[in-house]
Design goal:
Blueprint: H1 2-13, E1 46-51, E2 57-58, E3 61-62, E4 65-76, E5 82-92, E6 97-105, H2 117-120, H3 130-134, H4 136-144, E7 147-152, H5 164-179, H6 182-185, E8 192-198, H7 200-215, E9 223-229, H8 235-242, H9 249-261, H10 263-272, H11 278-281, H12 289-295, H13 319-327, H14 330-333, E10 343-348, H15 356-368, E11 374-379, H16 384-390, H17 392-403, E12 416-418, E13 421-423
Parallel strand pairs: 6-7, 6-8, 8-9, 9-10, 10-11
Antiparallel strand pairs: 1-4, 2-3, 4-5, 5-7, 11-13, 12-13
Helix pairs in contact: 5-7, 8-9, 9-10, 9-12
Length: about 425
């Protein structure tokens, strides 16, 4: 784990080369501001469209694309209030197939608009967005298959990291907008679509799959399935697993994201904060993931003598906090919100960031509710970080199979073919 910290320190210390025209940050970019009267537009309507301002990169090198566009799309927050989200569409450089589209949800894992994927994946973006840039390797693999890819800023303009309904609705509305972008992008309106996301991206993808039957039923004709890796279904469990560890910064950013959507939540956090930790309290909605990992390295939010919250773990039992956290945990809602599309889950047994126990609960709830096709590949030898890479080929193979009309699992629960691969 120390190697991860050394890598981040090296990257932040590395010089920025001159001559690069830097992309405008979302907080200063007028494109992210919807036009007057946008509130009357339908969810999924395209409000504005432009060519992506800068070259796209995968950490250090350009990503080969035929073209790329950014769309500002009408969406809404958790309460039905109108907002607008940006999605970035990538066209394959070779043999683009306008009838196939993948919605790829990046693990932004931040509560600051200037960490949004639409900005992060452009050359010259702040080095603190490097986590999002690494996922361009997986996106490049999709482009090599000839698939168009849409990458939504699913956290929305308030950067509501870990807020499930906002994220899922944004994914679905970005798909709607992408399917209606054909005059500019060439994508067919009846294109087949698969969703894919890992970690924070799995939260958004999972909520999108679960909300789709009621929220966007017309997409049933397009959606072929969803691949969910490092599947986040219970943010309390992640807090318990990462408090005082190298990944404690995820707690800070998730609390910041929830506070951005729920002012009452933020107020409770501020009132309970340790006055000696005021600097850390004030950065919950400031930092991109890489910065947060460094700033909150081994920080204790709920335990220890210098914990950030005076109430410790008792804070999570506050009725308002408990209600908000559970409303945004898919494990608590998975008996009622059940996907009607095939789902492939892949997860490491020794995941120390997203404990697998809650993934298994969600799996069982969906099975009990009668989901038609659900596959669960449990990797007994990998944790959260390594499964990002190790599990990707299985996800890509599954996605290719969906587009090639390969049959999905249709057996009944709780069939388990072996220790590491489950179906229902």
């Amino acid at each position: 784990m120390n190697s991860l910290i050394y890598l981040l320190l090296f990257l932040f210390a590395a010089p920025i080369h001159g001559g690069i025209l830097l992309p405008t940050k979302p907080s200063s970019d007028s494109f992210y501001t919807p036009p007057s009267g946008y509130e009357s537009a339908a969810n999924g309507d395209i409000l504005q469209i432009r060519k992506t301002p800068r070259t796209l990169i995968n950490t250090f090198a350009p990503v080969k694309v035929g073209n790329s566009w950014q769309l500002l799309i009408k969406s809404e927050d958790s309460f039905g209030n109108p907002n607008a989200i940006v999605t970035t569409i990538l066209e394959p450089a070779n043999n683009p197939n306008a009838s196939r589209l993948v919605s790829y949800q990046v693990y932004e894992d931040s509560a600051n608009i200037n960490c949004a994927p639409s900005y992060a994946i452009q050359a010259g973006s702040d080095i603190s967005t490097i986590a999002s840039q690494t996922e361009m390797y997986f996106i490049a693999a999709l482009l090599e298959q000839g698939y168009y890819v849409t990458v939504p800023d699913y956290e929305g303009p308030k950067s509501t990291f870990t807020v499930g309904r906002q994220s899922g609705q944004a994914v679905l509305n970005a798909i709607r907008g992408s399917l209606h972008s054909g005059n500019d992008t060439g994508i067919n309106e009846d294109a087949e679509v698969v969703m894919w996301g890992y970690s924070g991206g799995s939260l958004a993808s999972g909520w999108a799959a679960a909300l789709q039957p009621a929220y966007a039923p017309e997409l049933s004709d397009n959606l072929l399935g969803a691949a969910l890796g490092g599947f986040v279904t219970n943010i309390t469990a992640t807090a318990e697993a990462t408090d005082g560890t190298v990944f404690a910064g995820i707690i800070a950013n998730s609390l910041g994201g929830l506070g951005n959507e729920y002012p009452e939540f933020k107020s409770i956090l501020n009132k309970d904060g340790n006055i000696l930790q005021v600097l850390k309290l004030n950065q919950f909605d400031d930092l991109c993931l890489a910065n947060a990992i460094l700033v909150y390295l081994n920080s204790n939010f709920f335990s220890g003598l210098l914990k950030i919250f005076n109430s410790g773990w008792g804070l999570l039992n506050n009725p308002t906090v408990k209600q908000i956290v559970e409303a945004n945990g898919l494990v608590y809602n998975s008996k009622e919100l059940v996907p009607k599309i095939p789902v492939f889950i892949y997860h490491g047994s020794i995941d120390k960031v997203v404990p697998i126990v809650n993934v298994k609960k969600t799996y069982q709830n969906w099975c009990d509710a009668g989901i038609s096709s659900l596959e669960f590949a449990e990797d007994a030898t990998n944790g959260h970080v390594t499964e990002t890479i190790v599990g990707a080929p299985a996800a890509l193979t599954w996605i290719i199979g969906r587009f090639n009309n390969q049959a999905t699992v249709t057996s009944k629960c709780p069939t388990r073919s072996n220790h590491s691969y489950w179906t229902c």
